[in-house]
Amino acid sequence: MAGNSPIKVKIDHVIKKFQGRNGEITALNGVDLDIKENEFVCVVGPSGCGKSTLLNIIGGLDKPTEGKVTIDGEEVDGPSPEHGIVFQQYALFPWLTVEKNIQFGLKLQGKTPEEREAITQKYLKVVGLEKFAKSYPKELSGGMKQRVAIARAYAVNPKVLLMDEPFGALDAQTRVQLQTELLKTWEEEQKTCFFITHDVEEAIVLAQRVIIMSARPSRVKDIVEIDIPYPRDQATKMSPRFLELKNRIWSQVYEEYLAVRK
Ligand SMILES: Nc1ncnc2c1ncn2[C@@H]1O[C@H](COP(=O)(O)OP(=O)(O)O)[C@@H](O)[C@H]1O
Ligand SMILES: [Mg+2]
After folding, report:
1. Which residues form the pocket of ligand 1, taking CB atoms under 6 Å from any ligand atom?
2. Which helix (H) or strand (E) holds 67?
């Protein structure tokens, strides 16, 4: 699908060191990765390996110690409304209604009130929350809040959609429902997606490529092409090819879990 597409995001030998309590920690140790336009990549790896750090660097929320990230050939050097970021915890403004939350970035982008209204209506519909436009976050379930966060991220028409375990706090059923919805939205809207998850099944059902990161100091350990055609749905998870890929990815992730425990 993204076979001959141009490169959207270029991660060029990114190294990230932190000053920890017990000295320096190398989180990322030379990460190289090209993500193509409209590609959906999922990133898996043991807890603490640097997945969120990498996402923050792509989103301009943090700076690499060495190396660089370019989007459309331009070096990322700070946060921007062009990045749609969805975090695990519902980062909605509690004092704003659903529609005002979705509109938030649009104001910063200088859109007119008419444009803001049209875009908001569109994405309320995409995530099926038209009836909740005037509700406040506290009136919504966890799944609904994450739908708002996804609508808000799409609304700013980001160059890349960055998602850090967005479904991690949801119950299994809601999670599966949101996976299906996100896939449908991605197929309709075409967007470059960088999606972190600790759930190997989730990674395979969503991604065109699964990026496996090693334990810290972390690098790209392997990249697995998911050659299962879209549209995919939950039934995809029963197919022999899915199970084969799951075993292959899981065994590599498990090796890295063991490395962390050593
Ligand atoms: N601001 C920070 N200061 C010091 N250490 C940090 C900071 N952010 C992350 N780290 C460390 O970097 C490593 C990678 O963290 P993170 O990217 O959150 O991992 P992951 O998302 O894969 O679980 C961890 O060891 C974490 O403790
Ligand atoms: Mg993380």
Report:
1. 18, 20, 25, 27, 45, 47-53, 216
2. strand 66-71
Range of the domain at 116: 94-157
- State the Rg of the chain over Cα: 18
- Shared domain check, 165 and 76: yes
The pTM (predicted TM-score) of the whole model is 0.94
Query: What spacing in Å lies between the alpha carbon of 229 and ligand 1's midpoint?
Result: 35
Residue 164 Cα to ligand 2 middle (Å) = 7
d(CA 226, CA 245): 8
Nearest CA to ligand 1 atom 24: 48
Q: Are residues 53 and 174 in the same domain?
A: yes
* 28 vs 15: CA distance, rounded Å: 5
Distance of CA 26 to the CA centre of its chain: 23
Q: Tens-digit pLDDT profile for the chain (262 aa)?
A: 555 789 999 999 999 999 988 899 999 999 999 999 999 999 999 999 999 999 999 999 999 999 999 999 999 998 876 777 777 776 899 999 999 999 988 988 899 999 999 999 999 998 889 999 999 999 999 999 999 999 998 899 889 999 999 999 889 999 999 999 999 999 998 899 999 999 999 999 999 999 999 999 999 999 999 999 999 988 999 999 999 999 999 999 999 999 877 6
Q: What is the tally of structural domains in the chain? A: 2
